[in-house]
Amino acid sequence: MPESRPPLTMLLAAPRGFCAGVDRAIKIVEMALEKWGAPVYVRHEIVHNRYVVDGLRDKGAVFVEELDECPPDRPVIFSAHGVPKAVPAKAAEREMVYVDATCPLVSKVHIEAARHHENGLQMVMIGHAGHPETLGTMGQLPDGEVLLVETPEDVAGLEVRDPEKLAFITQTTLSIDDTVHIVDALRQRFPSIIGPHKEDICYATTNRQEAVKAMAPRADAMLVIGAPNSSNSKRLVEVGANAGCRYSQLVQRAADIDWRALEGIRTIGLTAGASAPEVLVNEVIDAFRERYDVTVETIETATEDVEFKVPRVLREPA
Question: Is 133 one of the catalytic residues?
Answer without folding.
Answer: yes
